């Protein structure tokens, strides 16, 4: 691999590292939102425990958990290893 392509890989890796930091920040924000929504759901009065509102809150928590899980599956280390190997 020539020097120019190695430089492009290095630049891409820097962007990936920055993206990882942003994804981590977004994940933390979503964790807070999920925890807040779950707490609000847990504190609904018994009269609303089986309401449409409670069901919507449960669905929101579930979707947030799925989103968080998807963010966590981004593996910058594996991508970095692949890029290191490619640039050898």
Quick rundown:
This protein is mainly alpha-helical and 88 residues long. It has three helices and no strands.
Instruction: Give the total of beta strands.
Output: 0
Summarize the biggest pleated sheet.
none
Decide which structural class fits the backbone: mainly alpha
Could you spell the SSE succession in H and E letters? HHH
In terms of DSSP E residues, the strand content is under 5%
Shape: rod-shaped
What distance lies between the first and last C-alpha atoms, to the nearest angstrom? 7 Å
| Oligomeric state of shown chains | single chain
Question: Quick check: average pLDDT?
Answer: 94
Counting DSSP H or I runs of 4 or more residues, the number of helices is: 3
What is the radius of gyration? Answer: 20 Å
User: Portion of residues in helices?
Assistant: over 70%
Low-confidence stretches: none
């Amino acid at each position: 691999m020539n020097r120019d392509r190695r430089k492009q890989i290095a630049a891409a890796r820097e962007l990936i590292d920055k993206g990882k930091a942003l994804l981590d920040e977004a994940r933390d924000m979503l964790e807070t939102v999920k925890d807040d929504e779950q707490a609000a759901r847990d504190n609904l009065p018994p009269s609303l425990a089986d309401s449409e509102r409670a069901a919507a809150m449960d669905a929101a928590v579930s979707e947030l958990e799925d989103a968080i899980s998807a963010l966590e599956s981004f593996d910058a280390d594996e991508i970095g290893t692949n890029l290191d190997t490619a640039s050898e």
